[in-house]
Write a structure and sequence with these properties.
With 87 residues, this protein is mainly beta. The chain has one domain. The protein has no helices and seven strands. The strands form two sheets. Strands 2, 3, 5, 6 and 7 form a five-stranded antiparallel sheet that branches. The protein has a two-stranded antiparallel sheet with strand order 1-4. It is elongated. The two termini are 22 Å apart.
Amino acid sequence: MLAGDYTYADADSDDESGTTFKWYRATDSSGTGAAAISGAEEINYTLTSDDLGKYICFEVTPKDGTDNGTAVKSSYTGLVGNYYTGN
């Protein structure tokens, strides 16, 4: 499982309310072929087999209950691969 991490700040000191999240999948660390992952709209994301060989990015759009802030994306991280954890 991946967990998005961000720091919320508001110029008017309004409380955070309604912030949205998206996760993206790309073919390289530059974001080539990036596409939003269907249904991945929470702060946490569980990797699937579709992510193998791909790079993952997290986007947050802060909201203060009324106004949306500017969407910000993380760097693409990967390469997602298979890891053997057996004995």
